[in-house]
Amino acid sequence: MAILLNLETATTNCSVSIAKDGELIILKEHNSSNYSHAEQLHMFIEEALQEASLSIKDIDAIAVSKGPGSYTGLRIGVSAAKGLCFSLGVPLISIATLESMAHQVVLEENTVIIPVLDARRMEVYSSVFNASYSEIRETRAEIIDENSFSEYTEKGKVIIAGSGAEKCKEILTHPNFICNTTVVPSAKEMASLSYQKFKDKNFEDVAYFEPYYLKDFVLLQKKKKA
Questions:
Q1: Which of 10, 17, 95, 146 has its CA 20 to 30 A from that of 222?
Q2: Residue 179, Cβ neighbours under 10 Å: how many?
């Protein structure tokens, strides 16, 4: 039996789940544009353990969403996960944020899903998965225009899912596009993905693991008053 703690902080949703052998048993999450992860994450971990009648010492591994996503959000989640792994002596597992998003949508045959996270201006972070949830195009930061993802619409339905879908639906007008703006990264879908990696012993080096930012962090400074 394996009990895994899953942490998702890549976007506005602060999400914690506990799963046993890949089956979700507890989910605690709150989606807020205020990015209150620093205050909520450890509280959610404690509440999840309490509701599951578990001690932190019962956890066999920690899984964390590795990005892409918010620089600060990813740092908070990864720092918490690494701290717990060091203190408990358990393995660290990383889950691609866009992959767990893809698993939120039930796919029909010959359907492609493109999870998209809103980046700056008309840019999104995106990856492409087939109906079996296998990645068929790597993660990119890209600017959306009328030709984006056109190679996939010729073969069937294309679901654009995530916070970036809002800007996509204004530009991508092909009838095979379906935009789903309700998908938000969650520790719920991480439950089965992290368990598979646990069984495969697909672990990260706790000392050297870093989030997948995809782009360099840019610090925006306020303009000085004249």
A1: 10
A2: 19
Indicate if 105-180 has the same CATH topology as 3-97+185-199: yes
Q: How far apart are CA 168 and CA 108, in angstroms?
A: 21
Which has the closest alpha carbon to 172: 185, 157, 184, 193?
157
Q: What's the CA angle centered on 39, arms 42 and 77, to 5 degrees?
A: 55
Q: Where are the domains of the chain?
A: 3-97+185-199, 105-180
Cβ 104 vs Cβ 97: under 8 Å: no
CB 192 within 8 A of CB 22: yes
Q: pLDDT band at residue 120, thresholds of 50, 70 and 90?
A: confident
The structural architecture, per CATH, of the domain 3-97+185-199 is 2-Layer Sandwich (3.30)
Mean pLDDT, residues 126-146:
96
Secondary structure (DSSP) of 100-132: HHHTTS---TT-EEEEEEE-STTEEEEEEE-TT
